[in-house]
Amino acid sequence: MDEILGRVLRNAVWERLDMLTELANRADTPSLLSVARSELPRLTEGWRSLLNAHQPDQKGNCPECSTRWRQRKAPCEVWRAAYEHLVAGGLAPHPSRHLQPAPVEAARRGPAHTSVRRRPAVPAGVS
Ligand SMILES: [Zn+2]
After folding, report:
1. Under DSSP, is residue 119 helix (H, G, I), strand (E, B) or coil?
2. Domain ranges of the chain
3. pLDDT tens profile 59-72
4. Which of 7, 37, 105, 117 has the maximal Cβ count within 10 Å?
5. How far is the CA of 64 from the centre of ligand 1 (A)?
6. Distance in angstroms (rounded) separating the CA atoms of residues 1 and 9
């Protein structure tokens, strides 16, 4: 059951991201402005919430990424990804990135993502 729920949640998030990408690529200016005003604050709040959970503790470890047996030094992968996407990627000119997804991203989304999308069974109450 946890596996199914996890798959449904991941699929919903992927679909939301796909929808936002589609809007960014195809929506007219008034629609884009409306979406930006509603979605950008949600995205920034989401990043803040995620990053707060991954703030280093007093020993300089990420409490979310560390386990009882293995401590993960900050900055963890979440912080690295935030920096890459929000700071480095936002400031550095990478024209090819806008034309196609990064290889790592495409690989990550590969078969698991597409196979989930073909499955119409979604439990009621989760959208
Ligand atoms: Zn972390």
Report:
1. coil
2. 2-117
3. 999 999 999 999 99
4. 7
5. 5
6. 12
